[in-house]
Amino acid sequence: MSSTTDTDALEVQPTEEASPGFAGLAILFTVTALIFAWSVWAAVGNLIQVPALFDQYRSFVTQNGAGELAKSTPWPALIATLLLPVLGWGAAWWLGRGRGLRARIVFFVVAYAGVCALTVSLTSYVFRASSVL
Amino acid sequence: MSRPDQVGSEPVESEPVDSDDEALSWGTSSDKSYVEGPVGSRAATAPDDEYDDEEDDDELPEGVLSSGMLVAHGVFGALLLLYTVAWLRGVGSVQPSFDSTLAAVMWRIGTWLAVAAPAIWFAATVWLVPTTRSRTRILSFIAAVVILVPWPFVIGNLL
């Protein structure tokens, strides 16, 4: 057995499946980019709307003499939900280099499932971080 | 070399042989009871140096998992199955409001993908990573265990 380096261990050996042509890659690029872009779009919406909700809540509790109930905006979680789809798409594209179309599709499905899981987790954390949503 | 009981026509009482020694001996080809056995393994017939060069590693043929890897698959598979159950139970606790039907539909699809993510990841790893690349498979399983922690369930029930 040949020895493996750290870099080799992280990469998956290309299979003998024929590499997709330009048209296949273009379709794959477009469809997956649209799907992942939706997640980015939703994250941008949250990045705008959620801090506003936190601000309203903070104003309300402060005006009513309960400032200790004010919660800080969970910026790291909101920014992470914005970056995750980009990182997930990039990882799927990079790991699928030199592989066939089916394998590349599987990489994108796994990546999108992972992004969805992390997004739901972060949303759950944001819900937990405040009682305003 | 002839044995004592083969010399001459008269049977000669052979010298008592230690039964243990006899049991551990295959005898020689001059023995009448000697039978040529099946061709032995290369380990038994090949010179030591050749054997060391070609057969000294534990490489298994493609498609065959070592027992250690089988155990690892079982452990990670069970853990990811538990994740799936935890996702199923926890994902309902997160119900944001949406300003469009499309957003609601995409969220619903995302939650189902989150539930299915552990199984998808496991199956994809088994399908895409050859059995000979054990280290890559283990790394992929570890990544799944770290990334796909069912936080909605953990936050709602364990924290």
Q: Can you tell me about this structure?
A:
The complex is a heterodimer of chains A (133) and B (159). Chain A has one domain (21-129). With 133 residues, chain A is mostly helical. Chain A has four helices and no strands. The termini of chain A are far apart. The radius of gyration of chain A is 21 Å and the shape is elongated. Chain B starts with 18 loop residues before the first helix and ends with a helix. Chain B folds into two domains: 4-55, no CATH class; 67-158, no CATH class. Chain B has 159 residues and is mostly helical. Chains A and B meet through helix 2 and helix 4 of A and helix 5, helix 6 and helix 7 of B.
User: In what range is the share of β-strand residues of chain A?
Assistant: under 5%
Unreliable spans of chain A are 1-7
Overall geometry of chain A: elongated
Helix content of chain B: 55-70%
| Oligomerization | heterodimer
Measured on Cα atoms, how large is the radius of gyration of chain B?
32 Å
Number of domains of chain A: 1
Number of helices of chain B: 7
- What pattern of helices and strands is seen along the backbone of chain B? HHHHHHH
Mean pLDDT of chain B: 78
Distance between the termini of chain A: 55 Å
Q: Which consecutive residue ranges of chain B, at least 5 long each, have pLDDT under 50?
A: 4-8
What is the structural class of chain A? mainly alpha
Separate helix tally of chain A: 4
Number of strands of chain B: 0
E-strand count of chain A: 0
What layout of secondary structure does this protein have?
The complex is a heterodimer of chains A (133) and B (159).
Chain A: H1 6-10, H2 22-63, H3 75-95, H4 101-129
Helix pairs in contact in A: 2-3, 2-4, 3-4
Chain B: H1 19-23, H2 42-45, H3 48-55, H4 67-90, H5 101-128, H6 134-147, H7 151-158
